Recover the amino acids of this structure.
């Protein structure tokens, strides 16, 4: 089964082709091609994503990216067996572009079309690594819009363990970067600036660190940076502020991820979402988790941020499970005709 995946939930247009074989254990080998266009430069002038511009740009990019992915994979549109697209959550207009293209192609080709949950795409993307984790595992989902700890028992078997009560971790990175004049999106720029700074010169809080709660709160941290950067008497260096901010976020994410592993008794921790690209987070998580026998898995960097591969892959897993379910028949010796609904 060859699946075309389309991601258009925010400011990245992503397309991928995933080939599913029934006995496939090496999920990575199924990823035949992926193409991506980031709108970051277009939105940078506005300091954030402009939804209307995002939708219009997805319209421009999507079909050329599909053609390029097919070319890279050496396949034709007629060979596509199913189409997966991001159904949500995300920007309504941007999602509609992906949904329209997916459904129009599916209708024209006569193949099934499946809507995928964007966060399920992120959650399952570590399975595309060359050494993937086995179920069950704890997932730390850290993106621009979400910060959640989940227990993952299988495809579609997700239990929320904790989440942010205000800003997401990526959002906190972006807003703090904005305060420090680093532009949009600020996460990678702030992380780069932090490398030349020293954590601890400025002291920032570690919100909700104490106790066993698995919930997060990051909005106060951004306010603390705003207050410290206005403190003209101390003249804190932006690099020191960036380093301390990053350290505070990392301290909280690391501590809570490990509490989640301890309370669930699970020894595999998966990190997904854009903030999962942060090198300091990776370093600290791997080092600390090792001390309590927990192994941490990361998707490769290109699969951390939004991409079409995770949507093609999640769609493929769902479609193949549906196909198997089709063979689990039941019979109805008694069946009231009036219980039927229209197809
Ligand atoms: O998963 P993603 O691409 O999109 C969403 O679904 O939100 O995540 C984007 C977020 C942005 O907030 C971006 O600033 C953050 O991930 N990010 C980073 C880094 N790379 C991306 N944050 C910290 N350090 C990074 N290296
Ligand atoms: Zn995302």
């Amino acid at each position: 089964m060859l699946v075309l995946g389309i991601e258009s939930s925010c400011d990245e247009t992503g397309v991928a082709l995933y080939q599913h074989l029934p006995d496939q254990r090496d999920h990575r080998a199924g990823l035949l091609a992926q193409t991506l266009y980031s709108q970051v430069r277009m939105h940078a002038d506005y300091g954030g994503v402009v939804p209307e511009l995002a939708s219009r740009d997805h319209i421009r990019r999507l079909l050329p990216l599909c053609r390029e992915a097919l070319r890279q994979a050496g396949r034709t549109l007629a060979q596509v067996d199913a189409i997966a697209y991001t159904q949500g959550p995300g920007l309504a207009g941007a999602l509609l572009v992906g949904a329209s293209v997916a459904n129009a192609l599916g209708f024209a080709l006569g193949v099934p079309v499946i809507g995928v949950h964007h966060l399920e795409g992120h959650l399952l993307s570590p399975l595309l690594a060359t050494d993937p984790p086995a179920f069950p595992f704890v997932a730390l989902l850290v993106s621009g819009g979400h910060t959640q700890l989940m227990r993952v028992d299988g495809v579609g078997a997700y239990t929320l363990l904790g989440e942010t009560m205000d800003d997401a971790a990526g959002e906190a990175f972006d807003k703090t970067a904005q305060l420090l004049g680093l532009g949009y999106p600020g996460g990678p720029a702030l992380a780069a600036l932090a490398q030349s700074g020293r954590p601890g010169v400025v002291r920032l809080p570690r919100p909700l660190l104490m106790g066993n709660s698995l919930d997060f709160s990051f909005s106060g941290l951004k306010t603390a940076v705003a207050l410290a950067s206005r403190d003209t008497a101390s003249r804190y260096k932006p690099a020191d502020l960036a380093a301390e901010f990053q350290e505070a976020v990392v301290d909280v994410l690391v501590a809570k991820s490990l509490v989640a592993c301890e309370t669930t008794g699970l020894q595999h921790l998966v990190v997904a979402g854009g903030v999962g690209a942060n090198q300091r987070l990776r370093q600290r998580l791997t080092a600390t988790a090792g001390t309590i026998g927990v192994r941490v898995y990361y998707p490769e960097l290109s699969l951390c941020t939004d991409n079409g591969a995770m949507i093609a892959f999640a769609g493929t897993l769902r479609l193949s499970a549906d196909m198997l379910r089709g063979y689990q028949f039941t019979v109805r010796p008694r069946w009231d005709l009036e219980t039927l609904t229209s197809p």
